[in-house]
Design goal:
This protein is an alpha/beta fold. The chain has two domains: 132 residues, Aspartate Aminotransferase, domain 1, CATH 3.90.1150; 237 residues, Type I PLP-dependent aspartate aminotransferase-like (Major domain) (Aspartate Aminotransferase, domain 2, 3-Layer(aba) Sandwich). The protein contains 14 helices and 14 strands. The strands form four sheets. Strands 2-8-7-6-5-3-4 form a seven-stranded mixed β-sheet, with helices on both faces. The protein has a three-stranded antiparallel β-sheet with strand order 9-10-14. Strands 1-11 form a two-stranded parallel ribbon. α3 packs parallel to α10 and α4 packs parallel to α5. The longest helix has 39 residues. The radius of gyration is 21 Å and the shape is globular. It starts with a strand and ends in a 6-residue tail after the last helix. Bound molecules: pyridoxal-5'-phosphate. The site of pyridoxal-5'-phosphate (PLP) has 13 residues, from α4.
């Protein structure tokens, strides 16, 4: 069966050029970058070249990039590292209700251990109000952490404005940019961020490779302790093939950013228009304009997202729902609840996330299959008035 992958916000395939770039670093150029001999220095040079490519992609200096294992680790590093280094100043963090679990879970943990956490609400589009950030800052606030764009609904937050407000009050600012690096133009100076998390597997690089951008001069302690790697900021032997792959992916993303965005926007418009033309009673979640080109999140009234997902999968189409199966109950997505959807509507939501390898023909196929699935499921739904 022909399979169509529309779950690129979950992960992307490695670009063939990325795979090629990584290949020699498994069995040929396998040195440890900390070793002083030829093998080590060969790996070191490649890691430093990848660091430069990643720094270029986000307008940073290479020494401001610390490699780590994932976006999740980068977020944990930012939160714990900044809190530990600034304990003398206070114990308060501000974040938002639509953050990824990789921010919300560590915040929950920190709260249990005596830190003060403010979780700001969002509007119906998922936007954080910068004035709310201003009001929430106290003399104990150390860090504001607001994501650059949301992974479920694609809304892009007013990061530069919020970073500016944080700085006016002498507070550090972190953004989880896992969904935006390699997808939209990013310049850490224009955004005004002190810390930024990114992850290779979201922009056609490998899994298990991430990084935290740390602006020069930012007070932060390591999250993973051990050896002196990453200039004493993150211990553990570097994932050399992963880092090389992420560097190659960064270089490609920078080169292709405009063409990629044009392609994704075309597919996005086609998909949104197609769904609205062919399926009644649907809602587009997220901001109508301030959104990532790859994201299409739709609520289909009267039916369950899981049923849609399984039916799509049977037709060879992979997408995702926001719902998380936890402790035996199906909880609706915290993001969809935060934007004010009812349980019923949140449960009927599907995220299609587009990628650079998707084609118009694939969207045509989806638009042929999806209306039939929705119609069939609605006919079976007790909520649907026929
Ligand atoms: N932050 C956001 C916004 C994400 O979408 C994800 C992954 O889905 C993560 C963090 C975690 O990244 P990783 O899978 O590299 O740990």
């Amino acid at each position: 069966m022909k399979r169509i992958y529309l779950d690129n916000a979950a992960t992307t395939s490695c670009h063939p050029a990325v795979v090629l770039a990584m290949q020699p670093y498994f069995a040929e150029k396998y040195g440890n970058p900390s070793s002083l001999h030829h093998f080590g220095q060969e790996a070191r040079a490649a890691v430093e070249s990848a660091r430069e490519k990643l720094a270029n992609l986000i307008g940073a200096r290479p020494e401001e990039i610390v490699f780590c294992a994932s976006g999740t680790e980068a977020n944990n590093f930012a939160l714990h590292g900044v809190l530990l280094a600034n304990e003398n100043k206070g114990n308060h963090i501000i974040t938002s209700a639509v953050e990824h679990h990789a921010i919300l879970e560590p915040c929950g943990f920190l709260k249990k251990h005596g830190y003060a956490i403010t979780i700001l609400p969002v509007d119906k589009y998922g936007l954080v109000d910068p004035d709310e950030v201003k009001r929430a800052i106290t003399e104990k606030t150390i860090l504001v952490s607001i994501m650059h764009a949301n992974n479920e609904i694609g809304t892009i937050e007013p990061i530069a404005e919020i970073a500016g407000i944080s700085h006016e009050k002498g507070v550090l600012f972190h953004t989880d940019a896992v969904q935006t690096v390699g997808q939209i133009e990013i310049n850490v100076d224009a955004l005004g961020v002190d810390l930024l998390s990114l992850s290779g597997h979201k922009f056609y690089g490998p899994k298990g490779a991430g990084a935290l951008y740390i602006r020069k001069g930012t007070r932060i302690l390591p999250f993973i302790r051990g050896g002196a790697q990453e200039r004493n900021r993150r211990a553990s032997t570097e994932n050399v093939p992963g880092i090389i792959g992420m560097g190659a992916a960064a270089e490609l993303a920078q080169k292709e950013l405009l063409t990629r965005t044009a392609h994704l926007s075309k597919l996005q418009n086609k998909l949104i228009k197609g769904i609205f033309d062919k399926v009644p009673e649907v809602i587009l979640n997220g901001h109508p304009e301030k959104r990532l080109a790859k994201n299409v999140n739709i609520s289909f009234r009267y039916i369950e997202g899981e049923s849609i997902l399984l039916n799509l999968d049977m037709e060879g189409i992979a997408a995702s729902t926001g719902s998380a199966c936890s402790s035996g109950t199906l909880d609706p997505s915290h993001v969809l609840m935060a934007i004010g959807l009812s349980h019923e509507i949140a449960h009927g939501s599907i995220r299609f996330s587009l990628g650079i390898f998707n084609t118009e023909a694939e969207i045509d196929y989806l638009l042929e299959v999806l209306p039939k699935i929705i119609c069939k499921l609605r006919q079976m739904s007790p909520l649907y008035k026929k």
